[in-house]
Amino acid sequence: MKPELDEKDLAILTLLQKNCRMTAREIARKINSPITTVFAKMRRMEHLEVIKEYKAILDSKKLNFGTTAFILASFSYRNGETPLSQRVIAEQIAKFPEVQDVHIISGDWDILIKIKEESVDAVGNFVIDKLRTVKGIEKTLTCMVFDTQKETTELTLPLNKQLLKKIQ
Predict the structure, then answer these.
(1) Contact of 70 with 143, CB cutoff 8 Å
(2) Which of 4, 5, 75, 82 could bond to 9 as cystine, CB 3.0-4.6 Å?
(3) List of residues 6+ apart from 111 with CB closer than 8 A
(4) pLDDT, tens digit, for every residue of 90-108?
């Protein structure tokens, strides 16, 4: 069930996406709302899991994880007579610490994986020594990222122009 969100909820979410360290007081000032209302709205959205968690976004290059790769994987839906689950395999892949994203996809491939590593060699080691050892994985295709123009977790929320100007 999709939660009902009003304009102030969307404004709060927009501000938090830009800076999750903003206090309820700062948000209240920006959206012209009482701090108690902002605090209650934030707690409600946390409870509804609209706000899943608060995180710092790290600069991967400065932390020696400057190599990004997207890996397409296909797998066998059967291991002998035993059927294999695409979801179970995706969950196993998601447990590897190098993995940032795992998506079950349509088309010629079954799963799309995003990893960040220190080097091309480290990506290769991940694919050979970890990914290809997952039961059912048949083949992989690794796409190395040369340059990134945009990488974000932000969603563009439908705010009215007046409120959007106010919070920017």
Answers:
(1) yes
(2) 5
(3) 72, 73, 74, 75, 86, 89, 90, 93, 102, 103, 104, 105
(4) 999 999 999 999 999 999 9
